[in-house]
Predict the structure.
Amino acid sequence: MDYVNAFWVGGLICALAQILMEKTKMMPGRIMVLLVCLGAVISAVGLYEPFQEFAGAGASVPLMGYGNILMKGVKEAVDKDGFIGLFKGGFTNGAVGCSAALVFGYLVSLIFRSKMKK
C-alpha cells in the first residue's frame, strides 16, 4: 500500500502543478518556487512529517519535499546556532540534493548532445 500512496500523492502534486501551468499565466519557474515555498510552510506548521509518513516518496521527491528539507535544516540550525542558523541551515540540508543535480546533469550532458531549437 505504501507504493500506491506514493504514486497517487506524487501524481496529484504533479497534476496540480500541470493544471496551474495550463489554466493560469504562471511560468513554470514560479510554479516551482510556489511548490518549494508551500512545502516549507507546511513543514513550518508541523504538518509535513505526518504527510510524508503517509505518502512516502510521493511527498519527499517532488519540489514540496525540497521545501521541507530546507525548513528542517533551518529549524535545526536555529536551535543549534541561533539567529545565524536562519542563513546556513537551508544550505547545509539542501547541499546534497543540489550537488547531485549538478553532477548528474553534467554527466548526462557529456553523454548526450544538446541541439538548439529552430
Residues 2-111 form one domain. The mean pLDDT is 88. The chain has one domain: 2-111.
